[in-house]
Write a structure and sequence with these properties.
The protein is of the alpha+beta class. The chain has 2 domains: 81 residues, N-terminal domain of TfIIb (Single Sheet), CATH 2.20.25.680; 196 residues, Naphthalene 1,2-dioxygenase Alpha Subunit, Chain A, domain 1. The protein is built from 6 helices and 16 strands. The protein has a 7-stranded antiparallel sheet with strand order 8-14-13-12-11-10-9, covered by helices on one side. The longest helix has 19 residues. The structure holds fe (ii) ion (FE2). The site of fe (ii) ion has 5 residues, from loops.
Length: 294
């Protein structure tokens, strides 16, 4: 596809690669919102250029390094990238898990991330297990002025909630969506009482129905090795991928009438309503048949 004209999507900051992979000398040739781009480091300074059809380097756009990733935009952002103060807390380990390509809409990927009902069926023995399948009540809200979707007071019994968990626990969760493509979950830390571990995804929408999903963890865990932590997260996400790549329609429906079809899931409904109010079309299912994701 060609570059989208959807200003809502264009005006967001997007993660498009890890600092580590690009510092190591590899230019990253990738795509964002239908536009081929080149991401590189000029010393310590991240840069992003359009990659023209003839192979030439085109217009430069703003770029910055944040949370181990390079963030960029093809538009004029109205909002700063995700603010994650926990990043500066002592004792936290940032685990950059790398990108996984998923042939699905970014919005489907974020919505799936918010969904607890699939834990016992898709992440059996890790994030859930039959017969404990009910999703307990939780609270949802749009936070202003941040303009973020939050779901709080979520809880779920988990046989192995984290790489550091020895036993099952009832995990407490909070979900936060800071942009249509960026979401973080705060989850009971199994090793430090009263603390949260953070797990998040920065979804890079390459096209309407193909993304690179950059996953990270920000955890209080001094014992697990880096590869244990990465493996734990990748195993979970690979389980999600096969579900995501088979969702029909591929684009996320935002029509209020479609909400009736969603299983009682408040966070999903609020996310869809929030996207609809923004006027986002990229990655959505349009009933008029114009969905490029279909
Ligand atoms: Fe999942």
């Amino acid at each position: 596809m060609t570059r989208t004209t959807d200003k809502v999507a264009l005006n967001e900051w997007q993660a498009v690669g890890t600092v580590e992979e690009i510092i190591s000398g590899k230019r990253r040739n990738t795509r964002l919102l239908g536009q081929d781009i080149i991401v590189e480091m000029d010393g310590e300074i991240p840069r992003m250029f359009e990659n023209n059809a003839n192979g030439g380097i085109g217009t430069e756009h703003p770029a910055q390094a944040l949370y181990g990733h390079i963030w960029t935009t093809l538009g004029t952002p109205v909002k700063a990238p995700l603010d994650m103060p926990e990043f500066k807390e002592d004792g936290r380990r940032l685990v950059v898990c790398g990108a996984l390509t998923v042939r699905a809409s970014a919005l489907r990927i974020v919505e799936n991330f918010l969904d607890m009902a699939h834990f016992p069926y898709v992440h059996t023995g890790i994030l859930g297990e039959e017969p404990i399948t009910a999703v307990n009540d939780y609270k949802i809200e749009i936070r202003e002025p941040e303009d973020e979707v939050w779901a709080t007071e979520c809880s779920f019994f988990q046989p192995q909630a984290a790489a550091s968990a020895d036993d099952g626990q009832v995990s407490q969760y909070m979900y936060r969506v800071s942009s249509p493509f960026v979401t973080v979950l705060y989850k009971t830390c199994p090793v430090v009482e009263g603390a949260w571990d953070l797990v998040g995804i920065f979804v890079q929408p390459k096209d309407e129905a193909e993304c690179d999903v950059h996953t990270f963890m920000l955890v209080l865990d001094e014992t697990s090795t880096m590869s244990d932590l990465v493996h734990f997260q990748q195993e979970i996400f690979l389980q999600d991928r096969s579900i995501l790549e088979n969702q029909i329609p591929p684009g996320l429906p935002l029509d209020p009438m479609d909400e009736i079809a969603i299983k009682a899931d408040g966070s999903s409904m609020l996310y869809r309503r929030w996207l609809r109010n923004k006027g986002l079309t990229f990655g959505t299912h349009r009933g008029d048949g114009s969905s490029q994701a279909a």
